[in-house]
TrEMBL record:
SUPFAM superfamilies membership: Periplasmic binding protein-like II
Upper classification of the organism: Bacteria, Pseudomonadati, Pseudomonadota, Alphaproteobacteria, Rhodobacterales
Keyword presence, Chaperone: no
Highest taxon of source: Bacteria
Signal peptide: 1-20
Annotated keywords: Signal
Name used for this protein in its record: NMT1/THI5 like protein
Matches recorded under Pfam families: NMT1_3
Coiled coil: none
Length: 328
């Protein structure tokens, strides 16, 4: 632990100097940038807009978060260069590289490169306490379930998970804030979230009404782990006032992505801003507790942007092979 702490201090000191250095080569840097996030009311929007604002302020550029359909659309936007940056989960990233992204079937989106680790996305289910739904098995046949924006990580994987668990449902899509309102108004039976916790829409619901945050049973978790590219995860009891104990779940890692053709010095400096001061990132969103250098190795899918790879090699001792770095 002492070594980890010393490493964190060294990274912070090294990075602060790098950002403050007025001699950074800004050749080819854009005058403004956009970060593809997701719908308002979700973690992606809060987290992505937050780090976009930090970068814009530190580097004296115009930039911010943009509402999108989430990870699948972000892969497409960053690949084409319509957005300089974005955020994605490893599942949608793998599908996009394979050419099975539903936004552009057959197009291998190799123009999007890994930039830095964000956090794990837990999959969780929420229902009104008045519904009597306290488990996956309680969800009635034909239940109306909100799965988030079309093409999002939640919409891509949660319906398949529900089918794997034998749930019969009607699929609904929309932004998280809108789906939360529909649940409260009785228009939905369940909302199935894949988002960093705490999810703003769930936190808002807790203030306004009584909800049940539903965990997977051990058998349900095992079935999902076997069928999907996810890991075990527990949603800490402290995450929501509703929870009295940790809730069993599964999760998928998220990474920030950059268009692979952006200047190396630009991406390196952006990574420096985000990774150099974790407490500041945690102020943006508590999920950023996992936005730390040692989690670079959670990317086993995307090619690294050379600027990002340079930062992690020089500041975090990262072992990134050349064949995982774009253009090498």
């Amino acid at each position: 632990m002492k070594n980890v702490a010393l490493t964190a201090v060294a990274v912070a000191l090294t990075s602060t100097v790098a950002v403050a250095d007025g001699h950074v080569d800004r050749t080819g840097w854009p005058e403004s940038f956009t970060v593809g996030t997701a719908s308002q009311g979700g973690t992606y929007f809060a987290y992505g807009s937050g780090w976009a604002n930090l970068v814009a302020e530190e580097l004296g550029l115009s930039g911010g978060g943009e509402v999108t359909g989430g990870p699948m659309q972000n892969m497409a936007l960053v690949h084409t260069g319509d957005a300089q940056f974005g955020m994605t989960t490893m599942g949608p990233a793998a599908e996009s590289l394979a050419g099975t992204n539903p936004i552009a079937p057959g197009l291998q989106m190799t123009g999007a490169c890994a930039m830095f680790p964000m956090y794990q996305t837990p999959f969780s289910v929420t229902a009104l306490a008045s519904s009597g739904i306290t488990s996956i098995a309680d969800i009635p046949a034909g239940a109306k379930i909100g799965f988030g924006p079309a093409g999002s990580t939640s919409d891509t994987y949660f319906p398949r998970m529900m089918e794997t668990l034998g749930v019969d449902f009607e699929r609904r899509n929309g932004g998280w804030t809108d789906l939360g309102s529909q649940l409260q108004d009785g228009l939905l039976d369940v909302i199935a979230f894949a988002a960093g916790v705490p999810v703003p829409a769930v936190s808002q619901l807790e203030v306004q009404t009584d909800v049940n945050i539903i965990e997977f049973t051990e058998a349900e978790q095992a079935a999902i782990l076997e069928a999907f590219p996810v890991s075990e995860f527990n949603i800490a009891a402290s995450t929501y006032t509703t929870l009295e104990a940790d809730a069993r779940s599964v999760s998928m890692w998220n990474f920030a992505i950059a268009n692979c053709d952006l200047p190396e010095s630009f991406v390196e400096t952006v990574v420096d801003v985000v990774m150099s001061d974790n407490p500041r990132m945690v102020n943006v969103h508590s999920a950023a507790r996992s936005t730390v250098p040692e989690n670079y190795d959670k990317n086993r899918v995307l090619m690294w942007h050379p600027g990002a790879a340079k930062w992690f090699k020089e500041n975090a001792g990262a072992n990134i092979p050349d064949d995982m770095i774009h253009g090498m």
